[in-house]
Design the sequence.
């Protein structure tokens, strides 16, 4: 029988499993009983120390062990392995940052806790990687940047494939994004899934904040190479970026989920479903062209409907019409 020193890693795990099963069959295993099965005494002692470390057995005397109940020992081992796997996945991003940094020819100084990004591809990959580590919440803000458009178009149901529930994802999007084909539909799908989406005007840059522990700043709208974009894992700058998001979110207008609008139709809201959608988009600041594309009608039809809705609500501006409708519970 091969000795432990001759085994590869997979064979070593097989050896431990075989030894553990033999101990289970013996009931109260001893070195003597295990050696009698053909194992070397030194290998038995070494392998048993690993099983003790995994809390599957415990020493009961010199050369003797007590097998712990598998019903409690195995789930405890599984929990430990899952925790190690989670730590490994989190560490993967840090190692990836080191790898990307080593492959980037740059004389720029390195800052502790800051990873500089040098392309739209790197920004998108960093966004996915950060979102995959979230355990509590994700805050996303998007201007009309190439990276934002990539993230919105790549995922039909979510912008960054979050690991947290949809209700833990908050997003502020610039109304300028509505001019791009398919963006409104994707954002409405995300809103229908439970994500909190607000629309605003003049978002200065894109980014995201994960669990108040890390943040991404995307500057690809200001530079085609995304030069200056970065990921930060330092408390103060992350808190500052999160505070900026909170202010933008507070000032923005909610995108009401389509399903909520349709489910909310009552006699108290004498509007067609199409008018509800138009009003909801008006409240976000969308243009007639953007609304027409989203609703599937002509721009002239939107203009006529908006004029009629403004008269109905006695609103002096388009935005005011959306606000008045929201106050009445029509959207």
Sequence:
């Amino acid at each position: 029988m091969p000795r432990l020193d001759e085994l590869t890693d997979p064979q070593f795990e097989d050896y431990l499993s075989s030894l553990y099963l033999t101990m289970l069959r013996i009931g109260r295993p001893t070195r003597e009983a295990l050696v009698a099965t053909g194992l070397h005494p030194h290998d038995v002692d070494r392998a048993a120390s690993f099983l003790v470390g995994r809390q599957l057995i415990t020493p009961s005397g010199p050369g003797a062990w007590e097998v712990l109940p598998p019903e409690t020992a195995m789930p405890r081992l599984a929990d430990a392995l899952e925790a190690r796997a989670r730590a490994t996945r989190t560490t993967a991003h840090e190692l990836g940052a080191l790898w990307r940094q080593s492959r980037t020819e740059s004389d720029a100084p390195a800052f502790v806790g800051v990873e500089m990004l040098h392309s739209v591809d790197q920004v998108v990959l960093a966004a996915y990687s950060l979102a995959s580590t979230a355990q509590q919440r994700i805050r996303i803000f998007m201007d009309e940047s190439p990276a934002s458009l990539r993230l919105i178009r790549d995922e039909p149901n979510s912008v960054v494939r979050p690991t947290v529930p949809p209700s833990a994802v908050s997003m502020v999007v610039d109304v300028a994004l509505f001019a791009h084909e398919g963006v409104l539909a994707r954002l409405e799908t995300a809103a229908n899934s439970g994500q909190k989406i607000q629309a605003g005007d003049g978002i200065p840059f894109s980014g995201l904040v994960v669990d108040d522990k890390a943040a991404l700043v995307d500057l690809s709208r200001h530079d085609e190479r995304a030069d200056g974009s970065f990921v930060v894992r330092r408390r103060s700058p992350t808190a500052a970026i999160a505070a900026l998001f909170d202010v933008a979110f507070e000032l923005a207008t909610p995108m009401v989920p389509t399903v909520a609008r349709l489910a909310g139709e009552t006699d108290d809201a004498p509007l067609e479903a199409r008018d509800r959608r138009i009003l909801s988009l008006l409240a976000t600041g969308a243009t007639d062209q953007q609304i027409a594309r989203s609703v599937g009608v002509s721009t002239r039809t939107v203009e006529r409907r908006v004029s009629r809705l403004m008269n109905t609500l006695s609103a002096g501006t388009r935005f005011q019409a959306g606000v008045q409708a929201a106050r009445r519970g029509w959207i």
User: Anything to note?
Assistant: The first helix runs from residue 9 to 26. The radius of gyration is 29 Å. The first strand starts at residue 57 and ends at 61.
